[in-house]
Inverse folding.
């Protein structure tokens, strides 16, 4: 018998192995309680990230400093973290009741607290996915900081190049620069970072703040400064995990509080026994789809509701948005602001209080019920948090005297952003199953949303399996090409689908918490195409491109509910 020739490992296999090692390493470091990212304890994490070379981190493995990845990471970490030698990940341990001012990153809702000039505390209430997200971002940041140190250090005595000394003078003395002086500094920065003047100028504009136009200079200086301190003075940066966080993680503590708060509101409004439809979405599309055409009929151009929704998505039209919110709150919508720490706000919509004659939907699918549906709109979960929150939400509500009231959940709809492997930004994906990356877990399901339902809506639609990834910041082209070109026939990737479906299947098929006939709907719109250079998440947001697919999906979900 001829023995088959053993082939060398492909890049996809190497990358898959690197992801596996990353997660094993991060779990080990979490259990250990602390580590030094640029020390021996952080070696495995750095090496795996450099081997993987994720698309979102661009040129992390090259000498030049990666700017798009830097913007992406900085917008998701607290302001000032580049100055801190010590970073402490904590649970919700009461810092919000102290004199410490919470710092919330613009692109990731989490409470962070600057304890002193050297320490930043980051509150983790969304589970392991959030820890992985933070650790990979910090590892990228520290790798880039050492690139800066390599560029500016002349010798082991700590002497630095002229351009660095100029930057140090500007940052430490908080100099206000004229336009000419600013351009001179940008030229120096281009030399330090190994990038063009134009590239550096663009990043400077993006990272500028109203009260801090030269924030980019400060970020680069402090990243380089701490890396120099590590090399010359052995002052290693350290990341630690609080004992309370290590004790609480994985125990649904925040999800249980969150779910009970929602069920209490349902109970207080006598809605627990009504037909319930859960939608995981943003906090505007469902509300606007139902109420905005009633409140703002004159803003609809050429009988096209999308023109109204585009108007409402414009940051300058806060007055119009407030009019919709005010009307909705008087006509069936109850807003439940999160106080549990999950950072997931909720809207409860009692459709019985809506004048059906004034909206674009007609009662058709719910005519079999005497009672009109109740819609629960929950904001986006983050990774594994999707399982925790959905699992707790679908459990019966414990009323007084120990009685349990099962929720009459008729459907669960999940919509959101995802990376697409065929097509471009703004296209729609209708999944037929979820595959959980790094495991053998897969979740086929009957999706109530079909491709044909979106014909004539002005968007391209793709169907196939969706990969639920362990973290969007760890994907690279080799793995994604394998998923796309193999018989897995994957159309896109996101972070929550498998977790949601695991909770829904457990509640409906095993635990009997909800009906086994519960309907599920999944649809995603493309925020990026990680297989296309320049189209990753680090290349920027969707802008108004996302309005059409968001509202088209919302409309199809609501049509099936009504």
């Amino acid at each position: 018998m001829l023995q088959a020739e053993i082939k060398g490992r492909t890049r996809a296999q190497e990358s898959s192995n690197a992801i596996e090692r990353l997660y094993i390493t991060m779990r080990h470091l979490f259990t250990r309680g602390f580590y030094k990212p640029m020390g021996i304890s952080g070696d495995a994490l750095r090496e795996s990230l450099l081997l993987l070379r994720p698309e979102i981190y661009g040129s992390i493995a090259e000498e030049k400093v990666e700017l798009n990845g830097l913007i992406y990471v900085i917008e998701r970490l607290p302001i000032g973290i580049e100055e801190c030698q010590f970073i402490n990940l904590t649970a919700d341990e009461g810092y919000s009741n102290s004199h410490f001012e919470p710092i919330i990153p613009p692109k990731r809702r989490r409470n962070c607290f600057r304890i002193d000039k050297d320490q930043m505390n980051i509150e983790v209430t969304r589970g392991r996915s959030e820890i992985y997200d933070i650790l990979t971002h910090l590892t990228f940041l520290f790798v880039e900081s050492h690139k800066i140190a390599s560029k500016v250090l002349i010798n082991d005595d700590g002497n630095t190049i002229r351009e660095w000394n100029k930057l140090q003078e500007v940052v430490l003395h908080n100099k206000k620069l004229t336009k000419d002086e600013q351009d001179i500094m940008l030229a120096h920065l281009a030399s330090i970072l190994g990038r063009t003047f134009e590239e550096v100028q663009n990043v400077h504009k993006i990272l500028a703040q109203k009260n801090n136009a030269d924030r980019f200079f400060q970020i680069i200086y402090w990243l380089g400064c701490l890396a120099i301190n590590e090399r010359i003075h052995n002052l290693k940066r350290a990341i630690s995990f609080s004992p309370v966080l290590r004790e609480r993680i994985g125990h649904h503590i925040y999800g249980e509080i969150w779910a009970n708060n929602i069920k209490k509101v349902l109970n207080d409004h006598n809605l627990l026994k009504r037909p319930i439809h859960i939608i995981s979405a943003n906090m505007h599309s469902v509300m606007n789809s139902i109420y905005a055409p009633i409140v703002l009929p004159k803003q609809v151009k050429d009988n096209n509701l999308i023109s109204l929704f585009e108007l409402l998505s414009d940051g300058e039209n806060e007055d119009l948005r407030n009019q919709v919110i005010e009307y909705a709150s008087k006509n069936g919508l109850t807003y439940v602001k999160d106080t549990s720490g999950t950072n997931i706000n909720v809207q409860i919509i009692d459709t019985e209080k809506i004048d059906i004659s004034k909206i674009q939907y007609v009662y058709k699918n719910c005519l079999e019920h005497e009672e009109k549906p109740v819609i629960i709109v929950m904001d986006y979960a983050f990774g594994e948090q999707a399982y925790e929150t959905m699992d707790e939400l679908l459990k019966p509500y414990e009323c007084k005297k120990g009685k349990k009231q099962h929720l009459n959940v008729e459907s669960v709809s999940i919509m959101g952003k995802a990376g697409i492997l065929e097509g471009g930004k703004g296209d729609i994906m209708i999944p037929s199953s979820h595959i959980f990356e790094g495991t053998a877990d897969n979740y086929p399901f009957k999706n109530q949303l079909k491709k044909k339902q979106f014909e004539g809506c002005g968007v391209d639609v793709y169907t196939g399996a969706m990969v639920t990834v362990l973290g969007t910041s760890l994907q690279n082209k080799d793995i994604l090409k394998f998923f796309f070109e193999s018989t897995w026939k994957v159309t896109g990737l996101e972070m929550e689908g498998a977790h949601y479906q695991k909770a829904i299947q457990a509640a409906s098929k095993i635990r009997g918490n909800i009906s086994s006939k519960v309907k599920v709907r999944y649809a995603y719109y493309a925020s990026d195409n990680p297989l296309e250079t320049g189209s990753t998440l680090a290349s920027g947001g969707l802008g108004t491109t996302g309005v059409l697919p968001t509202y088209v999906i919302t409309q199809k979900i609501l049509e099936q509910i009504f």
Q: What stands out?
A: The mean pLDDT is 90. The first helix runs from residue 11 to 32.
